[in-house]
Amino acid sequence: MNNSHQFPQNSLHVSPATWNSFRQAMLSARKSNEEVIGFLFCQRHQISKRQIRYFPKVWVVPAPDCYEHQSASGLVLKEEFHLYLLENYLSQGKLDVVHVHTHAGQETPCFSGVDDRCESEYARFLSSNFPEKHRLISGVFDESMEQSEFRIWNKKGNSFEAVNFYPSWFEIAQKQNCLPESDLMFARQKVFGEVFGRQLSELTVTLIGCGGIGAVFAEQLGRLGVKKWLLIDPDRLEIVNLNRMPGATRQMADQQWHKVEYVKQLIKKIYDTGSCVKTVPNSIEDKTAQREIVASDLIVVATDNHRSRQVAQELALKYMRPLVCLGTHIDIQPDGVPRMYCRVTVPPLGGGWCLMCGNIINLQRAALESAPVEIENLASQAGYLEGVNDPAVFWLNSICASTAVGVIQGMLGGFLNVEHGLDWIYQFPQCQWQHANTDYLTTPGCYFCSSDDRDLA
After folding, report:
1. Predicted pLDDT of residue 402
2. What is the pTM of this model?
3. CA dihedral defined by 277, 280, 286, 287, rounded to 10 degrees?
């Protein structure tokens, strides 16, 4: 048995927060040179016939009393514990199994003949005893859990293929050359580690909406270290934009610059060389734009209309891409005092709840925004659409953009767990942050994000 693909199409993605917890539990379970085992139960996302990604939904590391036998050369789980795993994680769901164990030593591990035989039998067992025909992915680590090898078995258990493992939601290689020592720009960010710097430099971010929030966001995330961008916005600069667009000039507005070209210039001013910025001065509805979006690592939507947010959310769900949504709102109370809000929302990867569940998208408004001009005019006359653009100020946009940049840093660094989603709202003049309990946003029957109703393939 050998791997038939030099570049495997299968990939396992574990978010930094989950990976840190799982790895620590595995290391804590070790005694002397004994092998330990752990399980990741994953949601499968089939992008194409050959390309499949796996995302853990839950992990389990057995306690010492769950083993029938445990030594430096092998281990056996108690039958009742294994039955518990099957009943709780496989019998009721569509999850696949990632079986992870350690080998003694610090050298690069490899699967043994015993591993081959036992895993082959287990792969056949999983595919023949459950209606969902669960797949088996196996991984082996050295005793420090720094180096690894992963593979996926076919349903017959007679062959396997290699799997790329990423302790990240993003497909960013972990073993790369260090950043050049001569790059002093990020010297004061070294406290976050070299891996963090490499991740930022390799991350490809799609920004949908290059207006007052998007422009500030792009500059701040660019100065954090992100060099690869896809910018999407059909609008051009106007005089009314200049109070909220850093570095924008009257001349740019007079010349009717596309907003994407203006934001591209902001990023290029940060990096004389080494950046890659693609611009699409078109709507997110454009099919070419959508093909570019789904090839990126992270989708950020900072638009002021519901239809673009809806399409961005649908693409994020279909192609399992993390999504960050930014927005602000200002209204004036009867006593003349303004109420100001900004909101940063990260729906859970793969569903559970989405922007529609969180009432961040009004589907009626989204439908009207995508309707022909004649219908939109009739809707406006009937009072379904407001005739004046929402008010906006630079400092509120900046709070929203800065918070989103911090959230992304937390996602990459593993110190902010967003696996169940995140919904933060800042309220001024009260100067309060409201952290929504996302349990209340979970909508099992949602047409858009419910895994039971949505065909991920």
Report:
1. 97
2. 0.86
3. -40
* pLDDT tens-place string over residues 43-53: 888 877 778 89
Alpha-carbon torsion, ordered 317, 321, 322, 326, to 10 deg? -70
Tens of pLDDT, residue by residue over 132-152, are: 889 999 999 998 999 999 999
Q: Whole-angstrom Cα distance, residue 16 to residue 413?
A: 7
Chain segment 159-175, per-residue pLDDT in tens? 999 999 999 898 776 55
